Prior knowledge:
The chain has helices spanning 8-22, 48-63, 78-102, 112-132; strands at 29-31, 39-41. Strand 1 and strand 2 form a beta hairpin. 55% of the residues lie in helices and 4% in strands. The protein has one domain (9-132). Helix 1 runs antiparallel to helix 2 (48-63) and helix 3 (78-102) packs antiparallel against helix 4 (112-132). By secondary structure, it is mostly helical.
Amino acid sequence: MTRRALGRGRSLIALGSLLSLLGILPAWWRIARTNAEALSGNGLEGVGIVVFLAALALLAVITLPYATRDGDSALDRPAAYVLLAGIAVAAFLFRIYEISTFHALGLPLEAPGLWLTGGGLLLIVWGVGEILTDRPTAF
């Protein structure tokens, strides 16, 4: 029983998923109002939940091989990473479109969650690119 190393691509995906999950809770948008509290929302609204679920699924796909005896998982394939990353990025871009229809996108100090999640998704895409360009190793 030999377990393979995590690798650069999976490490980037894990780091990006954790960063995306961290960015779900802070504000993604904020509208200041006079004589009232500001309105704001985070990543757990609308299709932001899809980003949350896709980041969790990516972490699950990464850890599945380490939870089995033989160190292999049928889901730990490049196609699974491409599919989940594509779903997360598409949902994120659609949420940005939704936010931009009623409010201008904020700077990092006004919408830290949006920027953290975007940075995490960039790391995920970079990691998926690393996985796709990996050369298979012979055991």
